[in-house]
Amino acid sequence: MIILIAIILICVLLTIGVSVPLAFGGVLILLVYTGGYDPSGFFATGHWKLNSVILLAIPLFIMAGDIMQRGKIAKPIVEIAELLFGHLRGGLSAASVVASGLFGAISGSGAATLTCIGSIIMPHLRKAKYPAGISGAIVISASPLGLLIPPSGAQLLYAWIGQLSVLKCFLATVIPGIILMIMLIIVNFVILRKNKDIQITEVPDRFFNVLARKSAIATPALLMPMIILGGIYGGIMTPTEAAGVAVIYAIPVGFFVYRGLTLQLFYESLRESSITIGVVMVMIFTVLVASRFLIFEDIPGIAEDFIYSISDDPLVIFLMLNVVMLLIGMLMDDISGILLSASLLLPIAQNAGMDPIHFAAVLGVNLGMGNITPPTAPLLYLGAQVTDVPVRKLIGPTMIFILFAWMPTLILTTFFPQIALWLPNMVFGS
User: Fold this and answer.
1) Which residues of the chain have pLDDT under 50?
2) Which of 3, 35, 135, 217 has the greatest number of beta carbons closer than 10 A?
3) CA distances (Å), 410 to each of 145, 231, 285, 346, in order?
């Protein structure tokens, strides 16, 4: 009964907008006072799990992403995408998908991708007379690509929780991310194919020369994920060391290559990223403590028994797990969603026959879709502010992208394991 009340309480708190650390903190207080538990043992567990070198990669990636965001490195990426697709009807909005995928590989964050790409591409979309609702929706729908295109801080955290290979988890989401990009672009073109108001750009006379010049400008930005993944894959760097290299690399690129950073902006970046890091680490601590309590009470076992009481068919179990992960993604940010889902649902998925690396991809797609799915949809409301489009105009088009792009990607990723496992198996020879 206490567990049921705790679950209801955390859902209510998250729904009304209480932050994740405070919501889990409130639940912990409830459990301590009603269940007669000594919190000191649970706090020690949280402290012990936080004492991990690999976990340092999370704040370092956050800092690197913030520096790159303020360093105006998204502009050359958007220009390349616009050059490739701008001459097509619906091409400019398709360019935002490509730009989001490329920038997602740099920032590793859906919110950072949305803020940076959205603020740059939306004025171009308005100038070209793209419908505001559809334009905002495609930018919002593409922003969670930052969770799928490596390197992803969320996948690194999942690998840490599951004691799995970081690079395998990174690689598991690559093909689902590419499939999602293709589906979003197709749906975008279908929606806008008959819109005669859209103004298209002319193809430059010396197209390949222009493309080569813009690609050269964008190369320093695009090198960062290559350096990180290459360093980890080549055994040159650990994930934590790679995250540190990302910070060191981002500073001169922001200052001297794209010249978007000033001392003032750099200071602001350090201040804001420090605040974000503090919130994230407190969030990780509270969720770790809460998850320890749930494990102590054998909640994963109870959940597993409940699921198997409904059906023991692996396909049905996978469907139910997807529903739960989607709901978690709707209520929480990616970090909290990863922590809770990995703690509670990974054992169930493994017992049902799902490879933990496959689960990484399924989890990434679910949480990304949950972040843009009404009514909670944290990225949807952030997108309304970034794109300056009312939420009511965004909900309809966003649901179209969810139903015809995100949902097919999720179904393919869930029920065709090789989509997630092919690349890790090819690289690691399994």
Assistant:
1) none
2) 135
3) 13, 30, 30, 17
